[in-house]
Amino acid sequence: MGDAEGGAREVSLLNSQGISLPPVVGGQESGIDSESHHASTNHASPGANPLLAEMEAPWANDRFFFVDLLGLTIIAAMSGIFSYGYNYVVGDLLEKWLSYTGDREYPKDKGSVQLLGGAWQWILIVWGGCTFVGILKAIVGLDKYPSFLVEIRAQHADPKSSFKVLVCCMLSLLSGAALGPEAGLAAACGAFGTLMALAISRLGESYKADEEKRTKLFVVGGICAAFGTIMPAPWVSLLICMECSIRKTDTEGTIMSIFGRRTLFLLGITATLAFVARYAMDPIPPSKLDGSILDRKYDNLMPLKAVLLGAIGAATALGIFVIGALVKAPFELIGRRVENCFGEKCRIICLCSLAGLVTGVLGYLVPFSLTDGKTEIEPTLMHALPALHQAPLTSANLFLIALTKTVSYGAANAGGLVGGPFFPVLYIGVVVGVLAARIPGFDLFPAFTIPVVMVSVPAAIFPIPFTMVAMPISMFNLGPLWCVPILVGIITSYTLLVGSGLVKKLAAKGS
Question: Which of 135, 234, 396, 486 is the most exposed place for a label (fewest CB within 10 A)?
Answer without folding.
Answer: 396
